Amino acid sequence: MCHFFAQKAENATLTDVEGNEYIDFAAGIAVLNTGHRHPEIIAAVQQQLAQFTHTAYQIVPYESYVSLAEKLNELAPVQGPAKSAFFTTGAEAVENAIKIARAHTGRPGVIAFGGGFHGRTYMTMALTGKVAPYKIGFGPFPGSVYHVPYPSALHNITTQDSLDAIECLFKADIDAKQVAVIIFEPVQGEGGFNVAPKELVTALRRLCDEHGIVLIADEVQSGFARTGKLFAMDNYADKPCLMTVAKSLAGGMPLSGVIGNASIMDAAAPGGLGGTYAGNPLSVAAAHAVLNIIDKENLCERAQYLGERLQSTLNEAKAWCPSLVAVHGVGSMIAAEFFEPGSTQPSAVMAQKIQKMALEQGLLLLTCGQYGNVIRFLYPLTIPEAQFSRALDILQRVTREAS
Question: What is the pTM of this model?
């Protein structure tokens, strides 16, 4: 957690109450792919503010919700004709995706992955594959939730290890015909920006088809141009049944959604889905603006360009920073992983040291990973070129000084 208080923000710059400026490489945890206070988002929200702020969509609907759903139905890489439903937070989206899948299958079981993060509510906390700090003192958790390892070459976990673990579950813990859901992040967020191998996604799709299981891709953190595609699942040939979205969907306004195969989405009984603020009209207006900005400003292409520059800088830093053992991710969803020099022991100390030194020089970074030894980079994709270069200079400097 930072020890300064925000006073104002503009694109990739945060200014604190004492007038100090910081380059924001956190973006509210991947919420601000379009930057702080993008003029088009401000204008869209102001226009909606002048009309109405709330009706509760299930009480009095509004056209902007429908048109946003239609846009996402067309854009999202899901199996078959799509439908969408909107909520408020990422955790709500995941909770509702599980509800929809259970209603569709009539089954209880859910399989998730170690290192995954799906939220902090009870069901999503059970799905999250990291104990500290998310689960300590909060049990017991909902039942019928099982975890298997997520592939990581650096940590010697192969795709086959993950698939073998699922088969072991089917033999030892739950019949495949009692499993409603397999949920995964195509790029793990809190888990350290581990990218799902294509062969894993193909195998999960095959398993789900074979056993009648709903495959859910959690794109809460990886969506909306972050990976160089509108959705991370656009990088794969295989498609999920359902997707969860939130964070950068509405450029800083609270909005989330479930997008999925229409026949599965229709499984919930009338009134089974919803929420007082679900699909809030101000947030929906912001989301329309976000999709326009991503398209107009070519943010998918820019994510690729910025990510390549960042990866190049970090790979250069390996020459003088022996703790920096791996750079991984896709597009502008890039992370640097640190070990104790000359060992296979993850080093949270080094990650935190670099994070602290960077902040002292005006660059805000976030750590992540099961061992807390990863620094993730989540700058706005709209960051000005000169400012991005300054940030890379700071990174070079602090990795030298920390070594």
Answer: 0.96
DSSP string, 177-245: GGEEEEEE-SB-TTTTSPBPPHHHHHHHHHHHHHHTPEEEEE-TTTTTTTTSSSSGGGG-SS--SEEEE
Q: Could you report the per-residue pLDDT of 84-101, keeping only the tens digit for each? A: 999 999 999 999 999 999
Beta carbons of 90 and 222 less than 8 angstroms apart: no
3-state SS assignment for residue 120: coil
Tell me the C-alpha to C-alpha distance, in Å, between residue 276 and each of 33, 56, 58, 62, 87.
27, 6, 8, 14, 9
Q: Which of 49, 369, 77, 114 is nearest to 245 (CA)?
A: 77
The partner residues of 11 in beta bridges, in order of sequence, read 36
Residue 131 has pLDDT above 80, yes or no: yes
Q: Using CB atoms within 10 A of its CB, is residue 156 exposed (0-12), middle (13-18) or buried (19+)?
A: exposed
Task: Please give the pLDDT value at position 1.
Answer: 57
